[in-house]
Amino acid sequence: MELTEELKKETEKWFKKIKKVKLIAKNEKGEEYKKNIVAYTEDSKHFFEKGDFIRAFEAVIWAWAFLEISLDLNLLEIENYESRKIT
């Protein structure tokens, strides 16, 4: 598979996953993390629409990293989700 197609596919996969997540901030720091997750997700969408698939992928992965870190630090929780596995 060509690199561009692979980036598009992976970006779409992670973007769909992160859009399913409904986050609840547990405190002020959690709210900051939530805002960063939303901002990186929107950046990913913007870059994807412009055909900049490298930056789109990078942004969605940053969003996912902020999500994982905030869950590990107990700053956010996922609404109505018993398992952290998001499919």
Structural write-up:
This protein is mainly alpha-helical and 87 residues long. It has one domain (3-78): Up-down Bundle (Substrate Binding Domain Of Dnak, Chain:A, Domain 2), CATH 1.20.1270. The protein is 69% helix and 7% strand. It has a two-stranded antiparallel sheet. The longest helix is centred in the middle third of the chain and has 22 residues, at 28-49. It is elongated. The two termini are 23 Å apart.
- Please bin the fraction of helical residues: 55-70%
Number of helices, counting only DSSP H or I runs of 4 residues or more = 3
Uncertain segments: none
H/E order of the elements? HEHHE
Largest sheet report:
2 strands, antiparallel
CA radius of gyration:
13 Å
Give the tally of β-strands.
2
Number of domains: 1
CATH classification class: Mainly Alpha
Strand order of the largest sheet: 1-2
Task: Tell me briefly what this model is.
The protein is mostly helical. The chain is 69% helix and 7% strand. It contains three helices and two strands.
Question: Which helices and strands appear, and what pairs or packs with what?
Answer:
Layout: H1 3-20, E1 23-25, H2 28-49, H3 53-72, E2 76-78
Characteristics:
Substrate Binding Domain Of Dnak, Chain:A, Domain 2, 69% helix, mainly alpha, 3 helices, 87 residues, single chain, two-stranded antiparallel ribbon, elongated
